[in-house]
């Protein structure tokens, strides 16, 4: 479970970075 949450957090952060790049 811990590993899954960590991977979810990394994925979420990556998606946020991607959305910011798209906006810029």
Structure, described:
- With 24 residues, the chain is an all-alpha fold.
- It has 1 helix and no strands.
- It has one helix at residues 2-23.
- The longest helix is centred in the middle third of the chain and has 22 residues, at 2-23.
- The N and C termini lie far apart (35 Å).
Summarize the structure.
This protein is an all-alpha fold and 24 residues long. Helices cover 92% and strands 0% of the residues.
What's the helix and strand layout?
Layout: H1 2-23
Q: Strand fraction band? A: under 5%
Gross morphology:
rod-shaped
- Low-confidence segments: none
Helix content range of the residues, please?
Answer: over 70%
Average of pLDDT:
94
What would you report as the Rg, rounded to the nearest angstrom?
11 Å
Number of continuous helical runs? 1
**From the helix content, strand content and strand pairing, which structural class follows?**
mainly alpha
Order of helices and strands: H
Q: How many beta-strand elements?
A: 0
The termini sit apart by: 35 Å
Largest sheet: none
